[in-house]
Amino acid sequence: MRFLAAVIVVALLAGVGVPAGRTKSGDSDSSPTARFEEVAERMARSINHRDFSAISLDFAKVMLEAFPIEKSKPFFNDLLGRYGRIVRLEAARFVPPNQAIFAARFERGILDVKIVLDDEDKITGLWFLPHKPALPAPERNETSLRLPFEGSWLVAWGGDTKQLNQHHDTPNQRFAFDFLGVDQFGRTHRPNPTSNEDYFAFGREVLAPADGVVTEVIDGVRDNAPESMNPYSALGNAVFIRHGRGEVSVLAHFKRASIKVKPGDKVRKGQVLGLCGNSGNSSEPHVHYHLQNTEIIQDATGIKCFFENVTVGKAGRATQKADYSPAKGDIIRHGEGAPSERP
């Protein structure tokens, strides 16, 4: 039995911004899905009890206007008639900046429920859609990867926990890295930086981590002034490279107009893709890198990355690693030779 129903209110029309008490990256003291789970669980209970007026209590004004009780009541009655009661909501999949998707198991089938919330945790978008199972993702990269740059870089975010990695709660970026360029003293910028040029990452070459085919390129996004972020174009200027079945590299925040490749290009490991910039949801120049299992970023699952031939500096010592997944606080470089260390 096929059932497709969508209740759609475009979130941007409701003035959705960064929720109070949460950072622009979506990071917070609790999981970013927690607030969605509360709303979804209330909604599921109300649907099961046919208390449709209770559901509307979680609607934002724009949602109430688009989907008043005289429309929502027959919609949810039809949903129950086709699928039965909601038995269980699976774990939420967070889609930055303000959406989450749940697999809802009904008595007679599964639907995906997508919820958009505003600053006040009110629903501004609601979809009931055919269930789309997550694509399988390997536990680690199968393609041999090199670091996507030369020289020494600080791992600002990276690792397997939320404390080490602000990306951890976003499924496609769970194992992502943010890299900051450093000088020979381990510093990321000149004293009292006021421009992008004061940061040592800005303008450095960004390299292909492995052979592959470019699938997407985003260019033309302005570089931010330091400490000014652009959440409306979160990746900024970016390049996607498909390496093999189920392995796609995403490199983001390139300098505007610096990208040298286009979709369909074949690239080789170590080839220059463009220059490090400060575009997108970025407060200072850096390279964002992660590996995911599909080109479709909103459907992707992140893959843990181990890089070949890495020199790691930590606590005043440099160690050569043949297969290494960097973590927050490391200073790293591709190949042999001691990386810069903090003084």
Write up this protein.
The protein has 4 helices and 19 strands. By secondary structure, the chain is mainly β. The chain has 2 domains: 126 residues, Roll (Nuclear Transport Factor 2, Chain: A), CATH 3.10.450; 182 residues, Glucose Permease (Domain IIA) (Distorted Sandwich). Strands 7, 8, 10, 11, 12, 13, 15, 16, 17, 18 and 19 form an 11-stranded antiparallel sheet that branches. Strands 1, 2, 3, 4, 5 and 6 form a 6-stranded antiparallel sheet that branches. It has a two-stranded antiparallel sheet with strand order 9-14. It is elongated. It starts with a strand and ends in a 9-residue tail after the last strand. About 6% of the residues have low confidence.
Sum up the structure in keywords.
343 residues; mainly beta; Nuclear Transport Factor 2, Chain: A; Glucose Permease (Domain IIA); 2 domains; 6-stranded antiparallel sheet; 4 helices; 19 strands; elongated
